[in-house]
Write a structure and sequence with these properties.
353 residues; TIM Barrel; 54% helix; 12% strand
């Protein structure tokens, strides 16, 4: 073997030994780097994990606080004497109030044996019933003026809600507001579902017959969900939502299981207590609230304002936690940068050495 080959072989061996030494020292340096970095960064990462857990717990806590009120009404579409004599006693027994619908065709009168009298009308209002206009005119302004004159002649207040059984034109909104009307009820078939309410200057909610197929399931759904409104319509002469004693009593029994304790709710007019077996039950966590449209809207709007306030409080606290997380993350980045520079410097010295 000549001298050149020997020199070349020695050079190759030197390169291999230097490479192996570099890899070995780099691995050792990486191990020391990782151990040192872990010892400094791990406590900081644990702080971040704890802060993230606090954020999650805080969000869950505030979500529970933001529970809305689920409300419902029974809207009586005509004022026959049967409402007072047959429907009212059943509802009173179960601690449930309704909403009296007043229209040009169906209004309380002074004296009658078939139509609800002014005395009966006032009795229901005193027992916590609400009132609602039912639109049956050709033009809204003429209809409202006629209703206003008639109600004034009986010394009865004008309702602030109105039911449009044949469709609602949103172009009427300003006219409604000018008349002090803030709630509109429409048939759910007109595009407004029975459990969803639209908020705006005028509150719009859908209505369904009290005995429609699936009513019990919808009641359970409303009770399980957070917020919403459900209106039932009832009459004594229309097959669509006609009163029938046995089925209606069963419905009221279902309502009683779900409704709130009206004595403890500031938005609900208390109804007289009864001594029926059903009313001896104790309700701890009410699921639904039977309320007039005015009270229902007030309850939902207060819940909405409360929700906005809670969101602001939550964001403030989350912002503080995020600031702490950002500060700790910056510390970790500084440690990583310093460790990387120290590792590279030490590795260079070990190679030169």
């Amino acid at each position: 073997m000549d001298l050149k080959r020997i020199i070349a072989l020695v050079l190759v061996l030197c390169v291999l030994v230097a490479g192996a030494l570099y890899v070995y020292r780099k691995d050792r340096a990486d191990q020391r780097y990782m151990l040192e970095m872990y010892s400094q960064v791990e406590p900081l990462q644990q702080q971040i994990d704890e802060l993230e857990r606090q954020k999650k717990d805080l969000q869950q806590e505030y979500e529970k606080k933001k529970r809305d009120t689920s409300t419902m009404q029974l809207l009586v579409r005509e004022l026959s004497s049967d409402i007072f004599e047959k429907v009212y006693p059943i509802m009173r027994t179960h601690g449930v109030t309704g909403v009296l619908g007043v229209s040009l065709a169906s209004r309380p009168v002074r004296v009658s044996n078939r139509v609800m009298t002014v005395e009966q009308y006032n009795r229901l209002i005193l027992d916590g019933w609400g009132t609602c206009l039912i639109y049956d005119g050709k033009t809204f302004n003429d209809y409202y003026q006629n209703m206003q004159r008639y109600m004034q002649s009986l010394e009865l207040p004008m309702p602030t809600s109105i039911y449009f059984p044949n469709g609602y034109d949103p172009a009427l909104e300003q006219s409604l507001l000018d008349c002090g009307i803030t709630t509109v009820i429409v048939n759910a078939a007109d595009g407004h579902t029975n459990t969803v309410t639209e908020f705006g200057s005028v509150w719009v909610t859908g209505a369904m017959p009290w005995n429609y197929t699936g009513v019990m399931s919808d009641l359970d759904l409303l009770a399980e969900t957070d917020g919403g409104n459900l209106t039932f319509t009832l009459s004594t002469n229309d097959i669509l939502d006609q009163f029938e004693s046995k089925s209606f009593t069963e419905m009221m029994e279902k309502w009683y299981v779900l409704i709130t304790d009206v004595e403890n709710d500031p938005y609900i007019t208390p109804v007289p207590t009864t001594t029926t077996k059903t009313n001896n039950k104790t309700k701890v966590n009410p699921l639904l609230v039977v309320a007039s449209y005015e009270n229902a809207r007030a309850a939902h709007e207060m819940a909405n304002q409360n929700s906005l306030q809670l969101d602001w409080e939550l964001n403030e606290q989350l912002g503080e936690l995020d600031s702490q997380i950002s500060a700790i993350s910056a510390q970790i980045q500084e440690i990583n940068a310093a460790m990387e520079a120290s590792r590279n410097k030490g590795l260079l010295h070990s190679i030169i050495g």
